Model the fold of this input.
Amino acid sequence: MVVLKTEGLTKEYRTGFWRTRVRVLHDLNLAVHQGEVFGYLGPNGAGKTTTLKLLMGLIYPTAGRASILGRDVQDVAVKAQVGFLPENPYFYDYLTGREFLHFYGQLFGIPYRDRRQRIEELLQAVGLSKAAELQLRKYSKGMLQRIGLAQALINDPQVIVLDEPTSGLDPVGRKEVRDLILDLKRRGKSIFFSTHIVPDVEMICDRVGIIVAGRLVRVGTLEELLGSEVEGIEITASGFDEAVGSQIAQWSVRPPVQHGDTVFFAVRTEKEASQVMEFLLGRGASVHAVHPKRRTLEDLFLQEVAKT
Done:
């Protein structure tokens, strides 16, 4: 089942004295399925936040349409099933974490008893139970991001839209957010999040869309995008003389890297790797590791960005 869909979604702005039209999003067509984590990957200024604003009905498209749970995004009724965390949210500084969540729960019309129970569950889930009585002005950036996530989940939404949810967080905070997203997936939620942090996408996403200069250039699972073909074989070896080292330098597809007595180099194929290892072992060298190198999402991402 498709829970979020765009068809020909396009956005233009008028800028400058002559009110020149500038297109920032070009004919976007994508679909997010129920229960999946969809990563929307792109460099800064690619059109990610514009897309999310269109999905939330905060701005109107120049052309095309977007729907969530089969309803147009401008339909107010669908908002009850959607959770949203913008990239740079502003929260009232003098509310405590618990008061803040009560406020948003009231906006959704959640009864007090249900709201109180839901808030305690969310504070526990985002690791802020002990900070619930602190005013938000005393929260760190990571804590504000986590209370923002709790706010996005207060209505127990079916579709969660997050704009750069791990941006600015330290490694511990990023892991906590990733774990929370995976837990939401296990509970059958659908998550659409934008980011420019490639490792986060590789770790938790079922499918990925890459947007560059307002155009969706790639979309699919990691397997579909990257394939399984080996691009090279990385070898770590030591214990050989200068003559052997010179031969390795000729075989290696890039300049070998040496740390102490250990040398790191790469060859193109498995056949070449076998020949090199036989050569090294025949001359008394030690081979410590052999790693097949496959194309990474970062390689693909940088390749697509370089085309613009």
About this structure: The longest strand covers residues 2-15. The two ends are 34 Å apart (CA to CA). The chain has a mean pLDDT of 92. The domain at 2-226 is CATH 3.40.50.300 (Rossmann fold).
